[in-house]
Specification:
This protein folds into 2 domains: 14-77, Arc Repressor Mutant, subunit A (Orthogonal Bundle), CATH 1.10.10; 80-271, no CATH class. The protein contains 9 helices and 10 strands. It has helices at residues 14-24, 34-41, 61-77, 80-94, 111-114, 130-138, 182-189, 192-201, 254-261, and strands at residues 45-49, 55-59, 97-101, 105-110, 150-155, 159-163, 174-179, 204-209, 229-234, 237-242. Helix 1 (14-24) packs across helix 2 and helix 1 (14-24) packs across helix 3.
Length: 277
């Protein structure tokens, strides 16, 4: 008699690990998809039926060990920069904001700035705000002869956050750019177009600076252009070295809302009080 064929459980990936974590943190209601089937086959989940006939899922001891192993591996793999980006995103979430990491946002900038004909954005005249950009997005060409010609650039701040508010004028979009290396910071400060893009998409822009091996800040506040604020990160805490100038932004363009809608926030509200797996 032939023995029953018992295939090896499929290799698990990040999707499996995330689902396992979600089930561990939830009541265990099943989605009944193939991800759960594979987790059940691997012995990381088990089915339970209540007295009234409702089926739920429970993470097994093997599943708990898998979650612990994945968490330790992810924590060890994080670079100092990634760890600080995560810290800032969590801090923004705890402060009542929605935070995204690594968003790609399209921003119109003066063509002269992109071509290097302008040395740097002025603190009193930052890149065109969202209100000015709305008109630019409606037409690829500038029609008024006195208006500066704009070109498009893609900007990806380390952390982009908005307030949790139902009033669009109260969203206060903020950009945090993270630097843990002095060389990286100095190289970044030589890119006025990048800084202008951040100033154009937010009501405030911050540089969050780490410390070197001797515990010294990688830069002093006066080394950062005055149109940006400065924060220091040390021993898991963020401190303000210089406030960021703020300006009102009444609304966000539609393309920004589309990008936010298609991208999950970096930290969900229920995760803000604990480290992510």
């Amino acid at each position: 008699m032939e023995s029953a064929f018992s295939p090896e459980p499929p290799p698990l990936n990040r999707q499996h690990h995330r689902r396992l974590r979600d089930i561990y943190r939830s009541a265990g209601w099943p989605c009944a998809d193939m991800v759960e089937v594979e987790l059940l086959a691997a012995g990381l989940l088990e089915r339970r039926v209540s007295a009234d006939g409702h089926e739920t899922l429970r993470v097994t001891d093997a599943g708990i060990q898998t979650l612990a192993r994945v968490f330790a591996s992810n924590k060890a793999a994080r670079t100092p920069h990634e760890a600080l980006v995560e810290q800032v995103a969590v801090a923004m979430t705890r402060a009542g904001r929605l935070a995204w990491r690594g968003l790609m946002l399209r921003v119109p900038l003066p063509r002269a700035l992109l071509l290097g004909e302008v040395a740097a954005p002025m603190a009193a005249e930052p890149a065109p705000g969202w209100a000015a950009q709305l008109a630019v997005f409606e037409s690829e060409a500038t029609t008024h002869p006195n208006e500066p010609q704009h070109a498009w650039c893609m900007a990806s701040p380390d952390v982009f956050s908005i307030r949790r508010s139902s009033v669009e004028a109260y969203l206060e979009p903020v950009v945090h750019e993270i630097k843990v290396s002095r060389a990286d910071l100095l190289g970044d400060l030589k890119k006025p177009a990048k800084r202008a893009a951040y100033l154009g998409m937010a009501s405030a822009c911050w540089y969050v600076l780490g410390h070197d091996a001797r515990g010294r800040p990688i830069a002093q506040p006066e080394e950062v252009p005055p149109e940006c604020g400065v924060m220091y990160a040390r021993d898991g805490e963020l401190s303000i070295a210089r406030e960021a100038p703020r300006r009102a932004i009444e609304r966000l363009p539609f393309h920004v809302w589309m990008t936010l809608a298609q991208t999950e926030p970096a930290v969900r509200l229920e995760e803000s009080g604990q480290a992510r797996f």
